Amino acid sequence: MKQTIFTLLVLISIGLISCRKDRNDPDIKQYDDTQIKNYIAANSITGMLRDTTDGDTTGIYYKILSQGRGTPMDYSDQISFVFTVRTLDGKFVSVDSLNANHFYGYLGHVSNSLPKGLQTAIHNLIKYKGTAARVIIPSHLAYGVNGYGSGSSSNANTHIGGNQSLDYYINVVSNQELYDDAVIKNYIKTKGLTGFTKTADGVYIKVATPGTGSDLIGLDSYITCTYSGKYLNDTVFDSTSLQGTTSSSFTVSGLVKGAQEGLTGQTAGSAVSIIIPSRFGYGNTGSGSSIAANVVLYFDFTVATVTN
């Protein structure tokens, strides 16, 4: 009798374990592949290829949208890319390629902050800087059985559920200067903006209201003003009002280089808009947790006083 009960408990335990798709389950690859194929069919996605590198072992699907050129990327190369991502169930969607979804660093370090499968896809499939691609990463190369993030997967955009494959659009930047300029031009066109002049450095400046003061702003000038800074998704990340004041004051040399360039030569009373390519903003390091690497910024300044 005891042997029968013991055997029954063992069989129940085996049954429970076999029902769970975890990282050690040999069927997880098959499960992922079925989910991806169903997703591709349901969304009428065409042109997707299955990764056959090293004998068809990853289960990654991909489509090259535009092909870059040059030397294939190695894990020791520093790269810059932007991306959007969504889970196949649609409960997590992140499309902010204008700020949040930026990466700059060594290709071999991508998996420190993003899925291992994304690093593999960039190295094995995307291969070249300048390439744009759509890549579906199976869950066992994404965030696995535990998922990622906080809260419940039923809450949109806070948590990636367990065993969720991920649909990425990726653009590996070959020339950051040209990429930033294309982003700025697209923003100006999309928003119907006028009056901006591009400087030799690639900073776009619009003097909405000419100043009436006599003292010209230089790098050592101390100014009082109101200002706002935003990403090109129009999310304001800093401003006089967010600081809880009605006026801001600082020395111009303490600002990012693009803001310095836009303000230099202006006078009290001027209202200036400045669109700053990333190399004259916070560059490839970003700023804290709010501004990612290689982000274009938009500033508005209204200058009240200038002290030289």
Description:
- With 308 residues, the chain is of the alpha+beta class.
- It has two domains: 23-174, Chitinase A, domain 3, CATH 3.10.50; 177-307, Chitinase A, domain 3 (Roll), CATH 3.10.50.
- The chain has five helices and 16 strands.
- Strands 1, 2, 3, 4, 5, 6 and 9 form a seven-stranded antiparallel sheet that branches.
- Strand 3 (78-87) and strand 4 form a beta hairpin.
- The protein starts with a helix and ends with a strand.
CATH class of the largest domain: Alpha Beta
Strand content: 25-35%
By secondary-structure content and strand pairing, the structural class works out as alpha+beta
CATH topology of the largest domain: Chitinase A, domain 3
**pLDDT under 50 segments (min length 5)?**
1-20
How far apart are the first and last residues' alpha carbons, in Å?
96 Å
The secondary-structure element order is HHEEEEEHEEEEHEEEEEHEE
Using the CA coordinates, give the radius of gyration.
Answer: 25 Å
The description of the largest β-sheet is: 7 strands, antiparallel
Number of helical regions: 5
How helical, in percent, are the residues? Answer: 10-25%
By CATH, the architecture of the largest domain is named Roll
Q: What's the number of domains?
A: 2
Average pLDDT rating: 90
Q: How many beta-strand elements? A: 16
What global shape is seen?
Answer: elongated
Which secondary structure elements does this structure contain, and how are they paired or packed?
Blueprint (H helix, E strand, L loop, with lengths): L1 H18 L8 H15 L6 E2 L10 E6 L11 E10 L5 E2 L7 E5 L9 H11 L5 E6 L10 E2 L9 E2 L5 E8 L2 H16 L5 E2 L5 E6 L12 E10 L4 E4 L8 E4 L5 H7 L7 E6 L20 E11 L1
Antiparallel strand pairs: 1-2, 2-6, 3-4, 3-5, 3-9, 6-9, 7-8, 10-11, 11-15, 12-13, 12-14, 12-16, 15-16
